[in-house]
Each structure stands twice: as structure tokens, then as C-alpha cells.
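Hi R.,

Here's the chain you asked about this morning:
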Amino acid sequence: MTYDFDIPVDRRGTWSVQWDGVDRRFGAAGLLPFTISDMDFACPPPVLVALQERVAHGVFGYTDWQNEEFRSAVRDWYRVRHATEIDTGRLVYAPSVLNQLSQLLRMWTEPGDAVVVHTPVYDGFRKAVGGLGRELRGVPLDDPAALEAALARDDSRVLLLCSPHNPTGRVWTEAELAGFAALAERCGVAVISDEIHADFVHDGHRHLPWTRFGRGRWALITSGTKSFNFPALTGSYGVVGEAADHAEFVRRMETGEGLGSPAVLSLVAHIAAYREGGEWLDEVRAYVAGNLSLVADRLNSAFLALSWEPPQAGYLAWIDLRPLGVDDAALQRELVEGERVAIMPGSVYGAPGFVRLNVGCARSKAEAGVGALTRALGRLT
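And here is the predicted structure, written out as C-alpha cells:
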């Protein structure tokens, strides 16, 4: 490999939510964290070089995101990585994917309307939807009948997809996505597809952008910040299907939100990542796949009842512990007090009996995490 991901980067004292903010969520300081979904790896070298060059310029005035360098970087990335043509005339820009989601929900729903999601559900969705006074209507991941029934209800206005799915790492098939599109059209429901994990799909699986399936009212919302690990720079972009909705989104961002000018370093990072970061992304994805295989080997060797398989996308190990019959609260006490690690409980995503272990990190840390989880489970079974 060209890049060495085995060397840990010390993130303590950098205002990191994962490392320095762990005590606020888990009630104890100094824990080894496997929590919020960012990685411990430094950004791709081409991104760092581009940022350094832009900082050296020294002027950070108001910036236009609707420039050809950014548009063409997005267009070419989708063309090469996803064999998909993007209409850059339908691009929008916002500080974050959740910011885009909130804006679209204000456009397409009213307080009290329902937004349908697959469960377990990313907790950011719950906060965004509930915070706007809309109802989050969950349906199980593998229950098409429940999805159809939920979308057919009179107050359902939006199908909110997570593609690939967080927290499970599920990659939707072409048949599934086409089915969602047909069902949404039949029920008169808009579709918002959050595809921030799209570029971290593992071998043997393929992500298909919603632009291939969208009918009527729809939007794809995404960002390079997740796969290339620069979320603190902010910045996201999307594709809005209908011309009138696209114009309305841009108008709202530039007027009501006052967000016409993006963070220039985010634009620089996106362009550099999409133009020169592909090799780094391929290597970090392969490295993380090794971490996930390590987790599977350790867990399944210790607990034959689990038969855990790595996710199809991402660096978050979503682990079903229900076969072991372990109490969630007892497990968290063992992890925090006994092992001094922070691992997200499944209850955060509406799924008691699961945990979500972030292994976007050096192998030594991944080994420490799965080792701690295995020991804690061993004491409780």
C-alpha cells in the first residue's frame, strides 16, 4: 500500500467530539472511543496540499460555489466512480447534509406530517425530523409490506432513504431502489436519499445513486466529508430533481438562510479529493475492510452464536448481540467501567441489543476495541 494507516494520529486536545467529548455522552473521561462516525486517519495528502496552498494565499473572502472547478469535479467523480451522469445544473450546496435535509423538509412538509424511514435509524434523522415538528415513521429494514403501508398513509409526505444505510451498512440493490421509486410515485411521496456513505462501499457491492431512479419530487444529498474525513471543514452538496424545487432551495439558502457563500476550504477539499484522492480512498477502504474482518474473526471465535458478518459499506460495525441475551445497561457498565472504552449502544438508533463499533482507525485501536467488547461480553455470558 502507498499509505500507512497503522500509525495512530493523536487526536486528544484537538476539540474532537469523538475523543475529547466522550465524557459528555458516556459520563467518564479518558475512555478509548469508538463512537461518532469520523475516522482517525489524516486526510488524503492531495487534500492537505491543496488546503495548505489555499491558506497560503491568505484571503478568504466571499466565495462562489457555482464554479466550474467544483461542478466538474463532482460530475467527473460520479462518471468515473459510479458510472452515472450528474446534471450539474441541478446541484445545490449547504453547510451539511442534515442542513439540506432540514431545508427540504421545510419545503415539502408541514408540522405534523410524517417522514418514513427504515429502522434502525441514524440518530441525526430523528433529531432533524423531530426538531422540525414532523413525525418520524419507522419501518423495519426488510419489511416491504410495512413500507408500503406506511407510505400509503394520508399524512406521509417523504420517504427518507439512507443509501448506503446507517447504521447497518446495507447497500440497496437496483431492484430495491427501483421498487422504492415506484412505490413513492404511486403514493405521491417525495424521496430524499442521503448518500454520504456512498463512496465507502466494499468489494462485491455497488452503490447506485438515486439520480438513476428519481421520479417526480426527489433530492440526493451527500458530501465528500465522510469518505475523505474532513467533516469539520463542513460542506455538502446535493442534486434536486425538479427545476422549481431546485430554484426554491437555492433561493432559501441565499435569502432566508443567508448561506450563499460556502466555506472556501470545504470547496478546495472536495475538489482535491475528487480529482486526486481516489487512490487514497481505495486503500483506506481496503484497510478498514481488514479491520472489519478482524472484528468478525474475534467475535465469532469467542461467541459461535453470533455469526457476525461485516457490513457492505462503511467503517461502522453494526453488531447484533441479541443471541447472547446480554443486558444493554450491564454491557455498557462493563465497557465503560471495566474496559474503559466507549462503544455506541444500539438503543441510540432504536435497536436495543445491538452495538455500533467504529473501526475507522489504526488496526491496533480496532484490536483494542474488539478485545474490550469480547472480554466484557465474556463476563456477562
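One quick note: The mean pLDDT is 97.

Cheers,
M.
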